[in-house]
Amino acid sequence: MSELDKEYESSLKSIETENKVDRAFYRPIGFRIARALRGTGITPNEITIISIFVGAAAGYFFYFNNIYWNLLGILMLVLANILDCVDGQLARLTGIKSAIGRILDGMAGDVWFTCIYVGFALRLGDLYGITGWFFIPAVASGLSHLVQANITDYYKTLHLYFISKEKGAEFQSPEEIEAKSEKMPKGIGKFFYMLYHGYSELQVSLTPKLQAMLKDMHSKYGDDIPEDIRISFRKKSKELMKTLDLLTFNGRTIVMFIIVLTGMVWLYFVYEIVVLNTVLCICIKRHEKMCAGYLS
After folding, report:
1. Considering the entire predicted model, what is its pTM?
2. Whole-number Å distance between alpha carbons of 274 and 206
3. CB–CB of 212/120 below 8 Å?
4. What does the H/E/C string look like for the chain?
5. CATH number listed for the domain at residues 3-292
6. pLDDT digits (tens, 9 = 90+) for 175-227
7. Cα(264)–Cα(124) distance, rounded to whole angstroms?
8. pLDDT tens per residue across span 64-83
9. What is the phi/psi pair of residue 222, to 5°?
10. In terms of C-beta density within 10 A (0-12 exposed, 13-18 middle, 19 or more buried), how is residue 83 classed?
11. 129-179 pLDDT per residue, tens
């Protein structure tokens, strides 16, 4: 492996949690931009903030029932995701990392898709003359998306935790997050941590078998989980990632782009609420069954 390849791999959380589209397209581009920005003084958080505005613009362009505006919206969302890769890769290349940065990065996608769902609702309202009613599926889609992204991030961070304690440093319990929040001074950072605490509480409430497995393993091994168990868990978790990928940015936007270009944006609400929630339930059920197999 060349030095450049090693540097590229070091810019990723883990090659095991990257899907094919990210490995082939987004991450290589993000790496090149991150390398160019290294040493410029531009911080990962600044890149994240830019990505929020770029991604939010997609919602505006998707409002129009015009293929050229819609193509521009697709371009904005692709660019936003490239920038989302840049911020993380720049953070790992420079060592400029922060808990607030991770929380802000996680919120970026929520802002993008909130704007997109609002754009869809307004577009359908103009088309059918009943604007208010389309905010019902828009809100349902937004809440569904929030839960799906929450659990997807949780399972991927758990996978990193089973690679090593260093890779999985971001895998924290609600109690650990709350303890850190209490020590923080009042301000925007504390506010973000309070939101993050609620985020983690939802993760815990939907994964009882996983919580029981972690409690059992920590009582037996502390933080030194045997390597054979780590390898076994990751092998099973990696298989689940193939289904979980449908809930990632790439999984949902490929379908979204096709639907937007056909003009039938109402169909995306159906896909988000019915199809992706079904996928989420299947993933949780399979993951819980997997975790139950590690209980004594």
Report:
1. 0.90
2. 19
3. no
4. CCHHHHHHHHCCCCHHHCCHHHHHHHHHHHHHHHHHHCCCCCCHHHHHHHHHHHHHHHHHHHHCCCHHHHHHHHHHHHHHHHHHHHHHHHHHHHCCCCHHHHHHHHHHHHHHHHHHHHHHHHHHHHHHCCHHHHHHHHHHHHHHHHHHHHHHHHHHHHHHHCCCCCCCCCCCCHHHHHHHHHHCCCCHHHHHHHHHHHHHHHHHHCCHHHHHHHHHHHHHHCCCCCHHHHHHHHHHHHHHHHHHHHHCHHHHHHHHHHHHHHCCCHHHHHHHHHHHHHHHHHHHHHHHHHHHCCCC
5. 1.20.120.1760
6. 777 777 777 777 776 677 777 777 789 899 999 999 999 999 999 998 889 99
7. 9
8. 999 999 999 999 999 999 99
9. 65, -135
10. buried
11. 887 899 999 999 999 999 999 999 999 999 999 988 777 777 877 777 777
Please name which of 245, 223, 226, 104 lies closest in space to residue 171, comparing C-alpha atoms. Answer: 223
Length of the chain: 296
Residue 157 and residue 191: Cα distance in Å, rounded?
22
Give the Cα separation of 207 and 228 in Å (integer). Answer: 23
